[in-house]
Amino acid sequence: MTVLALSRITRISFRARSWAPWAFVLSDVLSLELALILGCLLRLAMSVWFPFELGPELYRGLAIGILIIPLVFGLTGLYPGYGLGALERFRGRIYATFLVFAVLIGWDYLILARQWSRGILLGTLLFALLIPPVVEAWVREALSLRGWWGIPVAILGAGRTGQTVARCLNRDRSLGMVPVVVLDDDRAKWNQVLEGVPVLGPLDRVGELGEDVKGIILAMPGLDRPRLMGLLNDLSFPHIILIPNLFGVQSLWVSARDFGGVLGLEIKKNLLVPSNRVLKRALDLAFGVPLLILCAPLLGLLALWIKLVDRGPAFYGQWREGADGTPIRVWKLRTMCQNTEPMLELYLAKYPDEREHWQQHFKLRKDPRVLPCVGAFLRRSSLDELPQLWNVVRGEMSLVGPRPFPDYHLQSFPAEFRGLRRSVLPGITGLWQVSARSDGDLQIQQSQDTYYIRNWSLWLDLHILVRTVGAVLARQGAY
Predict the structure, then answer these.
(1) Which class is 150-247 in CATH?
(2) What does each C-alpha distance from 373 to 336, 366, 377, 479 come to in angstroms?
(3) Nearest Cα residue to 371 out of 427, 323, 310, 417
(4) What sign does the dihedral 302-306-312-315 (CA atoms) show?
(5) CB proximity list for 414: less than 8 A, separation 6 or greater
(6) Separation CA 175–CA 241 (nearest Å)
(7) How many other C-beta atoms are found inside a 10 Å radius of the C-beta of residue 287?
(8) Across the beta sheet with 193-194, what order do the strands follow?
(9) Partners of 170 in the β-ladder
C-alpha cells in the first residue's frame, strides 16, 4: 500500500466524522437548558420554606444567556478539542462556565436590577457544572467507539517512542488523534505494522500525505538537530507535536518558557507547595464532612444487615501504611467471614489457576470468604468503603489518593514506588480505581498511582471524584 493510497482511504473513513464536533455543541446546548430547568425546579421545591413565584417570561433571557457558554467553549479550543486530555477539557469547561455565570450575575445586578432569582442562578450554575461534562464524556465515548471521532495523524518514527505514542493514542481514543501511518528512514521497519498502524516508508514521503492527514507527531527524540529543524520547517500541517526524550517526567503541569529565544520547560511539583496541601485538605473536609453526615443512616442499615447475616462486628478495621509511613487503622464495613486465612489457602490449593490471579491482583472473582448476599453487594457497589470517610475527616486519609494496601500487597511493589506512595495521604478512591478498578494488576496500579502523585492538582482530584461516581454506578471491574 502506498502513502497516496492510504490518503484516499483516510479521506473516505473520516468523511463521516466532520460533523462530530457539532454533536458536542448540541449536547452542551441541551445540557445547559436542562440545567436551567432543574435550577428552576430546585428553587420551586424550596418555595415551601422560602416563598417564591416563578415568572417564566423573566427567564427567557437567562435561557439565551447560558448559550454563551458553548461559544466560550469554542473560543477556548474545546470544539473540537483534538489532542486535549480529559482533565484539560474538564478544567476548561469549569473555567468557562464560571466566567459566563459571573457575567450573567453582573448583568442581572447592573442592568436588570436583580430580576433573576439568586436561587435559580446558583442552582443553574450547580447543574451546569455537573451535567454538561458528564454528557460530553458519554457523547465522546459513543462517537469514539463507532469511529466517528478524531482526525488522522501520521507518526514520524517507528522506534520505541513511536510505538509508545501509537499505543497511547489507540488506547485513549478520547484524545481524537487517530494514527493512520508511520514513516521511518530505517528500511528494516518498512512494510511492518506498529500497534496496528502500517510503516509505509521513509520520512521524505511525508509530503505525499496530502491534506487528509491533519497532524504530525514527531516521535524521534534521537534525531540530530539539523534534520529535526529541517523537518519542522518543511512540515505544513495544522497540528505538529514534538515528543521529547522525557519519559517518566510528569506531563500535566509542564509549561513552555521562553528564555530570550531558548526553549525551557518548567516542571511543577504541586504537592510540594504548602498552599496546595491546604487546598487539598479543604476539599476533603468540604466533601467529607457532609458525606459522612448524609451516609450515617445508610451505614446503620448496612451494619444491621451484616449482623443479620453473620454474627460478629459489622465494621472491620485493618492497620495500613499512611503518609510518611505512619500506621493508620482503615475502617470498612465487613464483607467477609471471620477467620478467613484458612479458607483462602484451601481455595487456592484447590484451584491453582486462581493463585496466579491472586498474586497479580490480590483479589478473586469468586472469593469463598465473602459473606453471602450482603458481602457481594457491598463489594460490587463499593459501599463497604464508606466508613473511610471517618478516616478522611480525621486527616488520616484523603478522598483521592493511592489506596492504603495491606502489607503483603505493598511488598510486591519496588521500594522506590513504596517510598513515593508514602509522600502523600492514601485515598478512598484513586486514578486506577476509576480506570481499571479490580481489573488493574500490579503494573497498572503502580503506573497510575505514580502518575497521580507526580501530576496532582485540584482539577485532577475533582475529575477523579466525578469519574468515581460513574465507575461505581457502572460496577465495572468490581468484585
Answers:
(1) alpha beta
(2) 11, 13, 6, 13
(3) 310
(4) negative
(5) 446
(6) 13
(7) 17
(8) 193-194, 197-201, 177-183, 151-156, 215-218, 239-242
(9) none
Which cell numbers in the block locate residue 362?
490480590
- By the 8 A CB rule, do 340 and 369 touch? yes
Contact of 416 with 385, CB cutoff 8 Å: no
Q: What share of the chain is helix, strand, coil (3-state, %, to 5)?
A: 60, 15, 30
- Alpha-carbon Rg for the chain, nearest whole angstrom, is 26
- The x, y and z cell numbers of residue 475, run together, are 460496577
* CA–CA gap between residue 397 and residue 421 (Å, rounded): 13
Question: What is the enclosing helix (H) or strand (E) of 428?
Answer: strand 427-429
Instruction: Tell me how far the alpha carbon of residue 311 is from its chain's centroid.
Output: 40
HSE value, Cβ hemisphere, 13 Å, CA-based, for 201: 13
* DSSP labels, 262-320: EEEEEE--GGGSHHHHHHHHHHHHHHHHHHHHHHHHHHHHHHHHHHHHSSS-SEEEEEE
pLDDT tens readout for residues 150-176: 888 899 888 888 888 888 888 877 788
Name the E strands within 139-296.
151-156, 177-183, 193-194, 197-201, 215-218, 239-242, 254-259, 262-267
Q: What is the pLDDT of residue 7?
A: 47
Residue 238 preceded by cis peptide, ω within 30: no
C-alpha cell at 53: 413565584
Sequence spans of domains, the chain:
15-145, 150-247, 274-335+370-474
What CA–CA distances, in Å, run from 230 to 154, 164, 224, 227? 17, 24, 10, 5
Categorize the per-residue pLDDT at 4 as very low, low, confident or very high, splitting at 50, 70 and 90.
Answer: very low
Residues in the chain: 479
Question: Residue 228 is placed in which grid cell?
Answer: 529535526
- The cell numbers describing 105, all together, are 450575575
Diameter of the chain by CA atoms?
78
Distance between CA 218 and CA 241 in Å, rounded?
Answer: 6
CB contact at 8 A, 165 and 217: yes
Give the C-alpha separation, 434 to 75, whole Å.
Answer: 30
Give DSSP secondary structure letters for 10-35. Answer: HHHHHGGGGGHHHHHHHHHHHHHHHH
Cβ-contact 87, 252 below 8 angstroms: yes
* Residue range 384-442, pLDDT digits in tens: 889 999 999 999 999 999 988 888 788 888 888 888 888 889 999 988 878 755 555 67
